[in-house]
């Protein structure tokens, strides 16, 4: 049961709101002041905070800012009366998830709360939000991720070709580690202008350089208490590499043009598809920084190396494409499956996702066929009669599994085949 903390200085309204949440299946507690809220958060596990905007001499924004400074990253909602709406809007700009006009005891507010709690649960359990590959190399990688996630003192360098899912690996490490409720900030170093990279990472003070018309907070500040993921780390210029190495060693950094140092309370994860050893020999990457980042290297295999995952992963992307595009495409026919297995996938998972989404748009009925995919290879279509039979068989297997709740013994009995035959057919159709 999810715990919601109600922060409201009107005792009657606080109790009424908490009781209403309890009646709707939630564990709700209430406190009457900001100081009481701080004490409660320090002693209890809380999944969401529902705070009034006005709280005596304080307000909900002050509580929100305290929570962010001290690493509390659960969803935060502001309750407000009509006259406080401008202040509530300002609270959203500072990090509140939403503001709710009083009275809040409505079905719409319940929907908002449930959505935020569900989103938080998915961040805590990333398996629910992504297909977890089953091929040997992928399973080995997942085991390494589980081992290193709690070891926050180790720097992790994620290596692999473009499109293999390096950022997803970083998000898994973040989600399974001790900072899962704090921000995950991803930076593509290849997209940073070389002359502005240091400013983007560490921030700058007004007037530091031409165009610095105001103070700017960098990515290190945005990721405070959380995880900073630097993708394509090899693209950083040498000056920024020096600043990054110092920040990692000293656990402090200074915004450009600033005089005071700031504590760097982050977990740094990096990734590259470049040969950094060659970059070191060519004088483009610092060797000392490489060794600091490469304490725990992870290699992400290519999609071609995980061939058993191609069809299940395509099915996963199809389910999301259906939801996103409002389609009801059921499956890939056997010719498409054959093509997917034969293709080399140089763009890896990113390319597969793109191909599936496009095919979902083009599909005219409940099946994706060869005419719906666009792969640079020639495939001879199968015999139509045989194809129709296979399609019917696949539909029957899927329906039997759905009917029995994926009980394969019961499904084989429904289909009138042995369990070993069912397993062979599951492997044939990529339904393992």
From TrEMBL:
GO biological process entries: phosphorelay signal transduction system; regulation of DNA-templated transcription
Record-linked InterPro entries: AAA+_ATPase, AAA_lid_NorR, CheY-like_superfamily, Homeodomain-like_sf, HTH_Fis, P-loop_NTPase, Sig_transdc_resp-reg_receiver, Sigma_54_int
Transmembrane parts of this sequence: none
Residues modified to 4-aspartylphosphate: 52
GO MF terms, alphabetically ordered: ATP binding; sequence-specific DNA binding
UniProt domain Response regulatory: residue ranges: 3-117
Source domain of life: Bacteria
Name the record gives this protein: Sigma-54-dependent Fis family transcriptional regulator
Sigma-54 factor interaction domain segment(s): 131-361
UniProt entry keywords in alphabetical sequence: ATP-binding, Nucleotide-binding, Phosphoprotein, Transcription, Transcription regulation
PANTHER family: TRANSCRIPTIONAL REGULATORY PROTEIN, TRANSCRIPTIONAL REGULATORY PROTEIN RTCR
SMART domains named among the record's database cross-references: AAA, REC
